[in-house]
UniProtKB/TrEMBL annotation:
It comes from Nocardia africana. Coiled coil: none annotated. This is Cytosine deaminase and related metal-dependent hydrolases. Pfam families: Amidohydro_1. GO terms for molecular function: hydrolase activity, acting on carbon-nitrogen (but not peptide) bonds. Residues 164-346 form the Amidohydrolase-related domain. It comes from the Bacteria. InterPro entries: Amidohydro-rel, Metal-dep_hydrolase_composite, Metal_Hydrolase, Metallo-dep_Hydrolase. Keywords: Hydrolase. Signal peptide: none annotated.
Length: 366
């Protein structure tokens, strides 16, 4: 499809004309192009940087049809680039579906026995195997590896690190030799120094960050994906953990202070990106919720949108709106930085040059 669009193009904030031909953006006019819009805001395709396509809502492995349906939901909200942050299934078949978002895979979660959600990750009896397994998952993934940094230790009754500091350094070095970056699930405080000092590239959640570890992240350039819509489930997790009162109180405290934690990290210069943790306990399609949550946690609405669009794309090595880039963008009728309502109602989603009008949330019709 050949198309023409005119509107305010972000992040430059300039009114300009764009053309699309053969699924690619052109800054030069294209003959016989159909005008899709002559006003509005045109934003590089949104990024959910923590999105589990392949984990069924409520738990368990998703089948192919279910994974496709999850990816369709993400696309229809404008999330056109997904970093999977760990999936129990191989989603490479989605690459053959040009109508679905691009997935950047991190392989499977790597954990210890009984120290993560059952059946989702690779469980290592001996932590000395971690460097080899990390290298293996680095070769399997798309430039990322996901390890579980902490989880409840039932014998201690609270969150505890899974790995020694020395083995973390070996494992992260192994991933870097393979050309991959490493991210880690981490809720509490104790695992953070070891992860950051070992050279971890990103932290997921990061609710236990303190002034000291925030400073360490800023010095190391470690990124943070806070997943605030997931953190809002912590009170429910605490309510279900009556056998572990110390852990329950800890989770409530982490939830209570998380928005201040994110604001402090942002003020310190820690790079922050948007991720929903969709899959499992979070339904897919909540990218607007996470942008809105970041805007309530110390980021301006412009910065929150950037964290879910052009800045996240740059971080992940994917282009935004550029001459010759894939035509992956979202068109809004009103400025998406102005209100939550604008984010909820994209006029059009354009993926690889194909137009996907907004799906009605009630009827499911386009």
């Amino acid at each position: 499809m050949r198309m023409h669009l005119r509107g305010v193009v972000l992040p430059d904030d300039e009114v300009r004309d764009l053309w699309v031909r053969d699924g690619v953006i052109s800054y030069e006019p294209v003959l016989d192009a159909e005008t899709l819009c002559d006003t509005g805001w045109i934003v590089p395709g949104l990024v959910d940087a923590h999105c589990h396509v392949g984990i069924r809502y409520g738990g368990g492995h998703e089948d192919r049809e279910g994974a496709i349906a999850q990816a369709e939901v993400e696309r229809d909200t404008g999330a056109l680039l997904l970093r999977d942050a760990g999936s129990p299934i191989d989603t490479r078949f989605i690459d053959d579906h040009h109508e679905l978002p691009k997935i950047i895979r991190a392989g499977r979660h790597i954990a210890r026995p009984k120290r993560y959600i059952r059946e989702l990750g690779i469980e290592l009896d001996d932590e000395r195997d971690l460097p080899d397994i990390v290298a293996e998952q680095a070769r399997f993934g798309d430039g990322w590896v996901k390890i579980v940094g902490d989880w409840i230790d039932r014998s201690a009754g609270d969150l505890r690190p899974l790995w020694s500091d020395a083995i973390l350094k070996e494992a992260i070095d192994a991933a870097h030799r393979e050309g991959a970056r490493v991210t880690a699930h981490v809720f509490g405080e104790d695992a953070l120094p070891g992860l950051i000092n070992a050279g971890i590239d990103c932290l997921e959640h990061g609710t236990g960050l303190t002034a000291d570890t925030i400073e360490m992240m800023a010095e190391h350039g470690t990124a943070l994906v806070p997943t605030l819509v997931n953190i809002d489930t912590f009170p429910d997790i605490a309510d279900s953990a009556t056998k572990f009162p110390v852990y329950a109180a800890h989770m409530r405290d982490l939830h209570r202070r998380v928005r201040h934690t994110v604001a402090d990290a942002h003020a310190a210069g820690v790079p922050i990106y948007t991720g929903t943790d969709a899959g499992g306990s979070i339904r897919h399609g909540r990218i607007a919720d996470e942008i809105d949550a970041l805007a309530g946690a110390g980021l301006s609405r412009h910065e929150a949108l950037a964290a879910a669009s052009w800045r996240a794309r740059e971080w992940l090595g994917r282009p935004g709106i550029e001459d010759g880039a894939p035509a992956d963008f979202v068109v809004y009728r009103t400025d998406p930085r102005g209100s939550r309502a604008a984010l909820d109602a994209p006029a059009f989603v354009v993926l690889r040059g194909r137009v996907y009008p907004r799906r009605d949330p009630v009827t499911g019709h386009r």
